[in-house]
Specification:
This protein has about 130 residues and is of the alpha+beta class. The chain has 3 helices and 6 strands, in the order ββββααββα.
Amino acid sequence: MSTGPSKDLEVFPNPKPERDYTIHIESPEFTCLCPKTGQPDFATLSLEYIPDQLCVELKSWKLYLWSYRNEGGFHEDLTNRILDDLVLALKPRFMRLTAEFNVRGGIYTTVSAEYLAPEWDPDRDEMFH
């Protein structure tokens, strides 16, 4: 196999850094392991962000997500850890990660975490409505 899982998130320069615009990435095949049973957990990750100077390269995003396939973690921890890694790599103006985990034992879990750059002050009412 020419590629494998990797925790390295590659970036490229934002082609329009003077403009606020939203990038939405849907990743319906995220897998990890339940930290209690070791059984697989499946989720759809929805990433929304307003880039500043950098954007995430999609192949590296796919390989990054693949790196969780054999890793255990609670849904809340994994969602926040992934968001932290993305914020560290991209330094976005705004970012939200929503993880919708498939049913297990009759329970669906959705975890959302977000980041807002301290120096960025949009009109949030206008932006999100």
